[in-house]
From TrEMBL:
GO terms for molecular function: ADP binding. Residues 76-228 form the NB-ARC domain. SUPFAM superfamilies: P-loop containing nucleoside triphosphate hydrolases. It comes from the Eukaryota. InterPro entries: NB-ARC, P-loop_NTPase. This is NB-ARC domain-containing protein.
Length: 486
């Protein structure tokens, strides 16, 4: 097979067809559906398998809006680049941000530039292997447990194909096991984990972030089937996409609800303020993207995986996951921006200075803390490495962002993390978070302490509001540090 990229005239587009290969000009039944193109098909009776595009590629959402900069970056990297060597690229970002849809749109726009396209569910090592074995079976390359490797070996010297590893949210080593050898073909990866850039290089990695305001409004009006574009509608749409955090999945899901229930935008906005958790958790109205999970559901997947690691993972991974869960719970009750590592360090140091007073039940802002929530090691010292391990775990799922030891959370992700706190845990978690903030304030007012107190002001307000919403008594801690709280 030629290694040159085929022109559109070389490609036979077969859409909506099912269960076949082509050999000797005849259709033969195989596993799965086929919605992509087949190239260089002839009546040659050779027994060598023909390259197909499997598994079937679904089309991008018919409501796809904007994201032009990402599509252009992919086009520049894969299409405009004349290098014959393999090109790899990573799109990473939080769940629901539109990584998969961008890839599908890129393929739709540029499918004639690849001889073959293979879409792999890379959510686990098992899912990758299963897809590759299905493809190998369809090509009649080999059978048995080694069929995935046989296919990778076979394709490594053939064609200008593209393999998409979608939802590769595990470590980079999982995907590396299934990369064909050699320089043939291209690789595109989507992941919540920026760490996959170890495969593609940081230069060939790009974070997918929130939609711009105009494209977000366009998506909302399309998904809700709103024909009217009066100034009032546009203003309400502007407010609604803002509370939805400019996240494509959330906007698409909201539009589906508005259309199916016959709501006006203003009516849905009022409903969202009151019933956010229920609306964002509803899988029945996941919108036109065909995504399998609701907005909240896609983030639930991340936290459930962290919980699994905390219980079942190797010792170091389990410890990091446990630390991540601790941080996740505390962060949920603070303000979503400017969460400082220094706050945790200072709270730990103050706890160690005053823990002898705990026997007397005072001060309460120390009583409600414990070595685990303060990341203290066995020598009663603050363990920065354990803290960092928890942070890195949260970052690997794109649940937080880090900038010079200040952490932030997307507002809607932050709301989800708060909405998911079990009723029975709310009192304890509020007290722990409040005690942590109160204990991080030193009695001496040097410049560093003043800077930290300035950061804490928003967290104090957020905590007070959350305690009120959770109906947790906002009691006074009988400690001199808490004067800064009032």
């Amino acid at each position: 097979m030629s290694d040159e990229r085929p022109s559109m005239t070389d490609c036979n587009m077969i859409t909506g067809s099912h269960d076949f290969t082509i050999s000797g000009g005849q259709f033969n039944v195989v596993h799965g559906n086929l919605t992509q193109h087949i190239t260089n098909v002839s009546s040659d009776t050779s027994n060598e398998p023909q390259l197909l595009s499997l598994p079937p590629l679904r089309c991008p959402s018919g409501l796809f809006s904007g994201r032009e900069s990402y599509l252009q970056d992919l086009h520049t990297h894969f299409i405009d680049n004349p290098s014959p060597k393999r090109k790899t690229f990573l799109l990473y970002g939080m769940g629901g941000i539109g990584k998969t849809q961008i890839c599908l749109k890129f393929i739709e726009q540029n499918k004639e530039c690849f001889s073959d396209i293979f879409w792999i569910d890379a959510s686990s090592e098992n899912s990758i292997r299963l897809k590759l074995e299905q493809i190998a079976k369809a090509y009649k390359i080999s059978a048995g447990p080694s069929s995935a490797e046989a296919f990778l070996n076979w394709i490594s010297s053939r064609g200008s194909w593209l393999i998409v590893f979608d939802n590769a949210d595990g470590g980079h080593k999982v995907v590396e096991k299934f990369l064909p050898q050699g320089e043939k073909g291209d690789i595109l990866i989507t992941s919540r984990n920026k760490g996959l850039s170890r495969i593609t290089s940081p230069k060939n990695s790009l974070e997918v972030t929130e939609m711009g305001e105009k494209e977000a409004i366009s998506l909302l009006l399309k998904s809700s089937a709103f024909d009217e574009e009066s100034e009032k509608v546009k203003e309400t749409a502007k407010e609604l996409v803002s509370v939805l955090g400019f996240i494509p999945l959330a906007i698409d899901q909201a539009g589906g609800y508005i259309q199916s229930c016959g709501y006006g935008l203003d009516s849905y906005l009022r409903l969202f303020v009151k019933h956010r958790a229920q609306l964002m958790s509803n899988r029945e109205l996941s919108g036109a993207s065909g995504y399998d999970y609701s907005t909240y559901g896609t983030w639930d997947i991340s936290i459930e995986e962290i919980k699994r690691r905390a219980c079942e993972g190797p010792a170091a991974q389990a410890s990091a996951a446990q630390n991540a869960l601790m941080l996740h719970g505390i962060f949920a009750l603070l303000h979503h921006e400017n969460i400082s590592k220094e706050m945790f360090r200072c709270a730990a140091e103050n706890y160690l200075l005053r823990k002898t007073e705990i026997a007397n039940g005072l001060p309460q802002c120390i009583v409600f803390l414990d070595p685990k929530s303060l990341f203290l090691d066995e020598q009663d010292e603050w363990d920065e490495l354990q803290f960092d391990a928890g942070i890195q775990t949260l970052q690997s799922f794109s649940l937080i962002k880090c900038n010079e030891m200040l952490y932030s959370i997307h507002p809607l992700v932050h709301a989800w993390s708060r909405d998911r706190i079990p009723q029975e845990d709310r009192v304890q978690m509020c007290r722990r978070a409040k005690a942590l903030v109160a204990s991080s304030i030193k009695p001496d007012y040097d410049d560093d302490n003043f800077a930290l107190c300035a950061l804490l002001a928003l967290h104090v307000q957020a905590l007070s509001g959350n305690m009120t919403n959770f109906k947790v008594q906002n009691q006074y801690f009988d400690d001199e540090h808490i004067q800064n709280w009032k």
